[in-house]
Write a structure and sequence with these properties.
By secondary structure, the chain is mostly helical. It has twelve helices and no strands. The chain has two domains: 71 residues, Arc Repressor Mutant, subunit A, CATH 1.10.10.60; 142 residues, Tetracycline Repressor, domain 2, CATH 1.10.357.10.
């Protein structure tokens, strides 16, 4: 699951930053002290940012547009978040907060990991922009709590060291990749795109015989394909555990 110098304006307020370090800074930077609390909360900013991202996507999100949606000025917004990267970090963590995490481990690592992966995928699909911006340091409390749960379940199964890392990354990358692919198809006329793809494969059957014969996923098959793929991954982890101690 990674900071520029802070300027001061003549009014005593911090000057807005124009760039960003690629994300993650918001979790490492202490909240600034204020002489007077502004009429805006971070929770409200995050909720509006998630709504804006759901409606328009990441490319159209700007600090100015977010301030307009909140009915406030940019100066007030910059009291809470310094860059667009801050907003994306906070919004992503809010998405992870939708993933249910049991209070205790059941001892059934496959059921725990499978449920977590399914919940995570569902959250990403509810917010299609989220999977595409996950290539950033993720250090928010919701992300860390769910990552902790995943790692603890795998450690409880008997994985350690590089085996633990490989399993956790493999599962995470599978969830992210499947959500990204499904969201990409959903953003277009899926039926028309698939018809065009099928026509090309039929026309070039000799070059791509396997693809032409077995075709593509259609909308109703996404869930089934995800479930089968996840089972293959979990079967592989189980086979590794059965072969002997999964230690460095």
């Amino acid at each position: 699951m990674d900071m520029s110098a802070t300027g001061e304006s003549g009014t005593g307020r911090r000057a807005p930053r124009g760039g960003g370090g690629g994300g993650g800074d918001v979790w490492l930077r202490p909240r600034p002290a204020r002489r007077q609390a502004p009429p805006l909360t971070r929770d409200r900013i995050v909720a509006e940012a998630v709504a804006a991202l759901d409606e328009e996507g990441e490319a159209r999100l700007t600090m100015r547009r977010l301030a307009e949606r909140l009915g406030t000025g940019s100066t007030t917004l910059y009291w809470h978040v310094e860059t667009k990267d801050d907003v994306l970090d906070l919004a992503l963590d809010a998405v992870f907060g939708e993933v249910a995490v049991p209070a205790e481990h059941s001892g059934d690592w496959r059921a725990e990991v499978g449920a977590l992966a399914g919940e995570w995928r569902a959250a990403l699909l509810r917010h299609p922009w989220s999977a595409a911006v996950l290539g950033r340091p993720l250090m928010g409390p919701n992300v860390l709590a769910r990552t902790e749960y995943l790692h603890a379940a795998l450690v409880g199964a008997g994985l350690h060291g590089p085996h633990l890392t490989a399993a956790a990354y493999g599962l995470a990358n599978y969830v992210i990749g499947s959500a990204m692919m499904q969201a990409a198809w959903a953003s277009r006329d899926e039926d028309e795109a698939r018809r065009a793809a099928d026509e090309r494969l039929r026309a070039e059957h000799d070059r791509y015989p396997t693809l032409a014969e077995h075709g593509h996923l259609v909308g109703k098959d996404w869930d089934e394909a995800f479930t089968h793929g996840l089972r293959y991954l979990l079967d592989g982890i189980a086979a590794q555990l059965a072969s002997g101690p999964a230690h460095p």
